[in-house]
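pinning this so it doesn't scroll away 📌
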Amino acid sequence: IFGILFSRLVDLILSAKLKENLPLKNGTLAFKFWQMPPVPISFGIYVFHVANPIEVLAGTEVPVVVEKGPYIYRMHIEKVDIKWHDNNTIEYIQPQSFIFDRDASVGPDTDRFLTINIPYITVATILQHEYHVIQRIVNSYFISKGESAFMNRSVYEIWWGYHEPVLEEVAKILKKFNISSPLLNGKFGFFINRNNTGDGLYNVFSGINDQFDDYVHIDRWNTLKNLSVWMSDYANEIRGTDGSMQAPLVNENSELSVFDAYLYRSLKLQYSSATTYQDVRTLRFHIPYSEFATAAENPDNAGFCTPNCIPSGAYNMSVACFYAPVYASLPHFVGGDPYYQSLVRGLRPSQELHQPFYDIQGVTGVSMRAARRYQINIRTQSFHYFSSFKNFPLSYLPILWIDGVAAIDPGTASMFKEIIQDPLDALPYVHGAVFGIGGILFFVGICLFIYWRKVNSKSLNKYTKVNNSENSILNGDTRKSYGTNHTLGNQLNTQHEDSPAIIEHHVYVNHTTSSPNKVTYENLDASLPHDNSHDQSNYFDTMTSPSVENSDKYHTC
């Protein structure tokens, strides 16, 4: 009982501490951690260099790629413009700043590599269903400017953007045919205008008023509760958190999700294994391969078939990228259909290196370490009216992949261990000690109870023996202590003149009734002279007198 009560007490204390420290409001530990995470973030970029461009242009070989990287940026984030709302949500934006770390990189981010001419193939893709004459005019302009199917650009340019004057001129040409696209603004880059800016306006549940079931879950992103670009309600749902934290008390059976603004979708997490980071025990959740599976394997993904499903391992992001032929996947198409590797050579998928994961501290829900990984691919094909791509093979050509790793610093990890893990580790011993003490007390109680029963049983037997003897004497049976020729009745009627004193005894005699199991009691007043030879006083002195609290029932001499 003590152990059970102790266990319940521990649960109550833990719950009280979580309610005290987790709400996202000024003054709580969680708010400080959440607002400015003490988490060094490494943002690594790996690019794919095309090694056989001539053969690809001729249509005689599939692309052969060589991975180059990492090119590491140190990322700093801080939540600003924080506002609390009446529905227990908190609003913020999270600017992200990136500083290149040359020492941690394989080379400067000015390193160049050969890849597909993304602006050129994007225009060809957008115009492929327009009039042939329009396609021919635009193609002629590209050729006149010396553009081809491949381009040589730096890591910095591909990621952070560069000025492309050809796009500005193409935009002017297309404007004459009432064709426009946000992509045709003279600039290109996957992360253009993203340094020192945020990835949207977030509104998340704060945990105020002890509402922790949806703690730090996203309520709205850019004022939207749901997206609108995908083909199903499920695909458009904004679910889960941003990945840095989860609701508290995470276990192996927890159903977790993260929303990735850059992938423009929510992703389920799946428990993988128990892990340890900086001596802090964590639960590893990863993004399962099924999140990138075809609808035949995972019906939830039907909404990402835009317009048609492609083999498991990637999905079409063009509807979220102004119809540029961008496809997202896990790095090296890990977990994907072998189809993709048949179209591109040089890939080396590895679950350890390429699958995203989150190592979560179970009590608080904080991600102690996380790896956010995804790959950007461009779908290539032949275009009849664009001469550079006339013989181009079909492929999902990887351009680069991102390895965003965030890990708690040793000092913060030590704090988690001392404040949370170590006290919880001590509980089983305290709990066991309480159970042990409770067990000992229970055993002692049983022993005392048994002893008490035995003692009372002996007293009862003794009383019964005396009572039965009394019954026999009063019915005329002789006893040796009174002589063979004397009965107790005679003794009671005889007084010895030489008796120095009269001894009074209250004797309660058991008279047998007609029922063998029913007895009645009456008071027997005996005034006996003291006779050492017969030792009557010893006999009566051995009898136990009952309580006389009911004096009206038992009269005295």
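📌 and the second one:
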Amino acid sequence: MEQQMKVKQRTSKTRTGGDQQADNNVSTTASKGSISRHSTNKTSTKKATSTLASVLQGLALSVLFVFLASYLITDSWFWGYKGKYINRRHWFPPKEIVFTPRELAKYDGSDPTKNIYLAIRGEVFDVTAGRPYYSKGGGYGFFSGKDASRAYTTGCFQTHLTHDLRGLTPAQVADIDGWANFYRNHQKYFRVGTVILDPIDPNSPIPEDCHKPVSPKPSS
């Protein structure tokens, strides 16, 4: 009887030891599987990062090649393009300013320490980059510090330096709009705001054309 009990105890211990060994094997296998999956994920992440870096590097080299080719062929970095999109002010415009005619007149180019502004159709543009042309005495200095929209189409710089467009033809008004677009899309000039224009008295005379033929002086 005692021998049978001893045999059962040894058998139970053997089974218990076997179960523990099996559990240890399962735990080890699971741990190895977890490590393997983690390693696989790290490898995949590294591959994805490496691929992205290669793509970005390729794009950077392509862009650099385009710029270099442009400079070699056209002697400019942008294939001869001279529009507003190479003007940083187009992408980062200044805060809009609303001027009165008197305030705008302070930027007529007579003060070398101030920017030069002009207005056309109520829009104010910074033309400081063209100071030799728009300062006092420059070829276009009469446009600075005011809205002289009418003169842009008539070429009359004596009596038409005004925003009064009465009497102009649709084609002339369209011509003025074309000048406004010129300043909007310029590579160096840019919009800074608007000007509050004085109202035009409808009963006042239309500005006289300075190109109008002068009547001959009557003989005495």
